[in-house]
Amino acid sequence: MISRLLMSVSQNEIERTSERTKIGLAGAIKQGHIPHIAPLGYKREDKKLVIDYSTKDIIIRIFDLYYNGYSYQKISNLFNKEKVLGKDNWRDSTIMGILENEIYKGDFIHGKRTKHPTYYEDVVEPIISKEMWADCQVQKKKNSRSYKRTLTYLYLQKLKCPKCGRVLGGKATTKKNGNAYFYYYCNDCKIEFKEKIINDYFNQFISELVEYDSVVNQFFLPMIKQKFDEPKEQLEKEINEQKVKLERIKKAYINGAFEVQEYKEEKKIVEKAIAELENKLTTTDCTEELRFTPKDILLKRDIDFINKVKLDKEYQARTKTWKDYTRQEQSDLIMKYVDDIELALVGNEVVVKQINFRDSICKPCQELYDNGYIDITKPMILGNVLGSVRFSNYLPEKEVGEIIMRLRQYYDVHYTEATYYVDKQMFYFNFAEDNSAIVRVFPLEDYYKLDPNNKMETYRFGILYINEEDKFQMQEIDTAFDYIPDETNNSVIYTKEPIPISVGVKPVKFCEEKAE
């Protein structure tokens, strides 16, 4: 009895110790203490995993090469040829391990090879975005060593047979006039249909998709970049560390620890790292201009909407639409945003059931809308005409006022309020003048929280609008498209009436050639 009692107490203590260890380990991981050797691109500082700025670009390059069609073997061969990091033993398994490692998007899986692994999100600073990581996992589903296709299939790897669920193949016929016609088929089920069936359905989303991609390129990527941008102090610290390392190598060579050839190779690696770090310092001025905020996104989309109304000719000349994209660009856009396209059979006809957009890409857009920093377009009957209106979610009045005052640097934007009757699902409002165009509608209170069950009779909404005679107020038309008013004037009091103030501007175009 005593023996059993002692064994029971011991077992209980072991289980308690195990539980405390698990809790302590989970807490440590969430603080960046990753219980593994630091992978390439990272190093340890104060026991935490932090980015190693002298090697992180190698990781970025691996993901970029793979996304653009290079196989594991091609990347390892290229790195061996270039002797990246002074090594000529890069293997395809090494490249594969890097591409599959969640740590590079900031996440970590503990117990990956066990039956019950634990997933931790955002535990370290990421080197690449979650979107790029997800793109590469999608790319991995394809055969990365496959031949280069001469024809581009827009929906390859996105379509599954509505009967057996297998991924559909693609084929094309080229007529004498040079036009190519694309088809998708399932050999097993003998199903074949034209690409036009998918295009007709997909066209409903094209304008929104292109517009969203524009937002991503103009704002999300610079915001991601500035999140990953190294502060000048960190860069300077890394440069100093590399210079100290260079001095150590020189002293070691003088003392006979290195042969001439070894010394030259080691020196070349360190000097290359110093040159790359110094080059990043020179690009910080460009990235300083790209300090976008979520509020900037809403502001720019408002300005773009007004530009389309007031400067339609200039807007059309500057705006790239779906028909202006090459098939390869269209395919890349679909690959980036679409997870898969569900098909169904109606009789013998293939129809599109639904398009599933990638959650990792669309989630940031939804979060911005939930927080009031991006709009969505909703259908609305205006009088007897079916139209659409841009809606945004609740923002505090102070932030709404700041956006309105910044908009008024470019256009004489007007403000009014409207009553929304919940039971009738109708707005009642009157514009101050005729020939007005609604820019955006937004709730004046957070009704999602105040009235989750829709029991209130009315909601109050604010409306931004412009009149027919309102013109662009800046001297240069290009300013309307290439810049947005900056938040340099914090002394303005919002009165819902136009007040001329002096505000600087910030560029909206990403300096890709400099930032690279």
Envelope shape: globular
What structural class do helix, strand and pairing data support? alpha+beta
Distance from N terminus to C terminus (CA atoms, Å) equals 73 Å
Q: Please estimate the helix content.
A: 40-55%
Kindly state the number of beta strands.
17
User: Which range does the strand content fall in?
Assistant: 15-25%
The number of helices is 16
Mean pLDDT: 78
Largest sheet, in brief, is: 4 strands, antiparallel
Residue stretches low in confidence (pLDDT < 50, at least 5 long) are 144-148, 224-230, 285-290, 489-494, 510-516
Features:
disordered C terminus; 16 helices; alpha+beta; four-stranded antiparallel beta sheet
Characterization of this structure:
- 45% of the residues lie in helices and 19% in strands.
- It is α+β, with helices and mostly antiparallel strands.
- A four-stranded antiparallel sheet has the order 13-12-15-14.
- A hairpin with a 4-residue loop joins strand 12 and strand 13.
- The longest helix is centred in the middle third of the chain and has 34 residues, at 195-228.
- It is globular.
- The N and C termini lie far apart (73 Å).
What's this entry about, in short?
This protein has 516 residues and is an alpha+beta fold.
Write the layout of secondary structure elements.
Blueprint: H1 2-30, E1 42-45, E2 48-51, H2 56-67, H3 72-82, H4 92-100, E3 108-110, E4 118-120, H5 130-141, E5 169-174, E6 180-186, E7 191-194, H6 195-228, H7 232-254, H8 260-288, H9 294-310, H10 312-318, H11 327-337, E8 338-346, E9 349-357, H12 359-370, E10 375-382, E11 385-392, H13 397-407, E12 414-421, E13 426-428, E14 436-443, H14 447-450, E15 458-467, H15 478-482, E16 483-485, E17 505-507, H16 512-515
Helix pairs in contact: 2-5, 3-4, 7-8, 9-10, 9-13
